[in-house]
Write a structure and sequence with these properties.
about 400 residues; six-stranded mixed beta sheet; about 25% strand; nine-stranded mixed beta sheet; 18 strands; alpha/beta
C-alpha cells in the first residue's frame, strides 16, 4: 500500500480566517492526523481572536462583498451554526438590518467624530458593492414597530439594507466566540496552536504549505502584498437589568446639534449586549496586535453619538472600549480579498487576507476554498479567479 502523502501545514495568524481555515482543513475528507500536521501560529500573548476577529461587529449578509465569496460563505455560516449549535455557542441568529436616519438629542456635549487620534478619517467600505434601496415609499417608512431601543420621535426614515434577500438575508455572530470555537473544534481534530512570530525567509521548518492569514500584518511578512491597515474603534453597551434590546443592526445617519453629523454602526446581540463602531482612520500599524492603541476620546465620541438616539443605552453602562486594524486591499484594480496560492512568490505559499470589514462574513468561504486548494489541489467554484494572488502580486 502506498504511503500517504506527508504534509506539514502552518497557518500564520490566529484570527477568524486562520482559525476557520484550520477547522476546514481538519474536516476535509483527505485530512488525516497521521499524515498531516497543522499548526496555527499566533503572535499575541493573549491567544487567538485578539484583533479585528474579536472586536468586529459580526455581520453576516447575502448582500456583502464580494458576491462570489459570499455565495459560499453565507450557507456555510448557516450549516456551521446547525452542526455545532452556533445559536448558543457563538450567538448566530438572523437579524433585521436597515439604514436609519434621524436627529440626535442635544446632550450638551461635543460628540466628536469618532476618528482615532494619530490618523485621518478612512472609510470602512461596509457598503461596497451594495445596491442601496432607492424606493421612495420604503425609504420614507418611519420607525420600525419592533425597534424598541431607538427613540421613535427621533426617526426620520428607515429602510431595509437589502429588501430583496428578506429577513433571512442577514445574520450575525459574535466574532470572538465564533473564532475561538473554530479553533477549539480544529484542536479536537489534532490542530496545534502555537504562540510565536514568523518570517517567510526562515529555514527553521521543513514545511509543505504555508497559509498567510495575518490580516493587516500580512505585508510585514510579504511586502509585495498591496494591503493597507485601517484602524477602527468600537464600544459595547450593557443596558440596565430587565431591559430587552430588540434584534436590529443599524447603519445610522445622525444629524446632531450645532452642525455635527455622525454615522455609527450599531449591532444588538443575542445576549443583550450592543456593539457600536465608528469610522476608520489611517494611523500607523504597530508591530503586534497586543500593541494596538485605543483612543479613549474616539470611543467616548461613539458612545455620545449612540446614546443621543438610544436612551436605553444611555442609562446602561459601557463595558468595552477597543480598537482593531482591518486589512484593505490597495490595488490599481481595487477588489480583494486575496485568496489562493502565490505561485509567483513560492510554491506552497497561500494567501488569505484583505477582507476589510467582511472577514467575519467571508471566513467560512475563504476557509473552504483554502482547504480544497491545499488538500485537493484545486478549489470550486473557479469563479474566484479574480481574487487569485496572481492578479495582485
Amino acid at each position: 500500500m502506498a504511503q500517504a502523502q506527508q504534509r506539514d501545514i502552518v497557518i500564520i495568524g490566529g484570527g477568524i480566517i486562520g482559525c476557520t481555515t484550520a477547522y476546514y482543513l481538519s474536516r476535509n475528507p483527505l485530512y488525516s492526523s497521521e499524515s498531516t500536521r497543522i499548526t496555527v501560529l499566533e503572535a499575541s500573548a493573549n491567544g487567538v481572536a485578539q484583533g479585528a476577529s474579536g472586536k468586529a461587529g459580526g455581520l453576516v449578509a447575502k448582500w456583502a462583498y464580494p458576491a462570489e465569496l459570499v455565495d459560499i460563505s453565507f450557507p456555510e455560516h448557516v450549516r456551521l451554526a446547525k452542526e455545532h449549535n452556533g445559536i448558543d455557542k457563538w450567538g448566530f441568529r438572523f437579524v433585521e438590518c436597515g439604514t436609519w436616519e434621524g436627529v440626535g438629542e442635544d446632550l450638551k456635549r461635543d460628540p466628536g467624530s469618532g476618528v482615532g487620534k494619530g490618523g485621518k478619517r478612512k472609510s470602512l467600505e461596509k457598503t461596497l458593492g451594495v445596491e442601496l434601496d432607492t424606493d421612495t415609499e420604503r425609504i420614507n417608512k418611519r420607525h420600525p414597530e419592533g425597534l424598541n431601543w431607538i427613540k421613535q420621535e427621533l426617526t426620520t426614515s428607515y429602510a431595509l439594507m437589502d429588501p430583496t434577500t428578506g429577513l433571512e438575508g442577514t445574520a450575525q455572530v459574535h466574532p470572538y466566540l465564533f473564532t475561538t470555537n473554530m479553533m477549539e473544534l480544529a484542536a479536537e481534530n489534532g490542530v496545534k496552536l502555537r504562540r510565536g512570530s514568523a518570517t517567510l525567509h526562515s529555514g527553521r521548518f521543513q514545511l509543505t504549505h504555508v497559509i498567510l492569514a495575518a490580516g493587516a500584518w500580512s505585508p510585514t511578512l510579504l511586502s509585495s502584498l498591496p494591503i493597507s491597515a485601517t484602524r477602527a474603534h468600537s464600544v459595547t453597551f450593557r443596558p440596565k437589568p430587565g431591559v430587552d434590546i430588540a434584534p436590529y443592526v443599524l447603519f445610522t445617519d445622525i444629524k446632531l446639534p450645532r452642525g455635527h453629523h455622525a454615522s455609527p454602526e450599531i449591532y444588538a446581540r443575542p445576549d443583550n449586549e450592543v456593539y457600536a463602531c465608528g469610522p476608520g482612520d489611517d494611523s500607523t500599524l504597530p508591530g503586534n496586535v497586543d500593541d494596538v492603541e485605543v483612543d479613549q476620546t474616539a470611543c467616548e465620541s461613539i458612545r455620545e453619538q449612540v446614546v443621543s438616539i438610544a436612551p436605553k443605552l444611555r442609562e446602561g453602562t459601557v463595558e468595552k472600549r477597543q480598537a482593531c486594524f482591518l486589512p484593505t486591499v490597495s490595488h490599481r484594480g481595487g477588489g480583494g480579498p486575496i485568496i489562493g496560492e502565490a505561485k509567483t512568490v513560492a510554491k506552497g505559499l497561500y494567501i488569505a487576507t484583505g477582507h476589510t470589514c467582511w472577514g467575519i462574513c467571508n471566513a467560512p468561504g475563504t476557509a473552504k476554498v483554502m482547504a480544497e486548494l491545499v488538500l485537493d489541489g484545486k478549489a470550486s467554484p473557479r469563479k474566484l479567479k479574480r481574487l487569485d494572488p496572481s492578479y495582485f502580486l
